[in-house]
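Section 5.1 Outputs to date
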Amino acid sequence: MRRINAVISMAVIALFLLHAVMGGFITWGVFDGGSTFMKIMARIMVTLIGVHFVIGTKLTADTLKALKRSGAHYFRENKLFWIRRMSGFAVMVFIVIHIMIFMGKQGGVYRLNFFGAAELVSQILMVLSVALHVLTNMRPLMLGFGTRSWKEMGLDLALILTGVLLFSGVCFVIYYLRWLL
């Protein structure tokens, strides 16, 4: 199950990177936001994220059962484990908010809802929670794929992810400013 989750995670990361870049250009007005490709890609990504969430929940429940059986919780020693789980939950909450913000339907035509300060803050928090979740899970993901030197590949992926997340954050700010002007 962990191997399947690792493959799903890599697919989600790839789709996320593409979605973030395309979404950034959409907020700048370079691309049409209602493109069929973007909708299909987003739906596939949400489906994969849902499967990832279910598998992650099952693996977390199994871990909690094992901790309960052993009687030794070692919460302090497992801080990274809990950061991974809580950041994943935060990502899920912010994805729901993201969908609510960027998908409004009026009269059969998709329209964006108002993008104010609360929306901007929620999207910046989404970018930060995605960064935290992916970066804290990079090592086990790379090791799950059998990468011997996860640091080199992990740093390359972290650099790409950081650049795309920075681009997304800037695009959200520009989009917010466009609503104000």
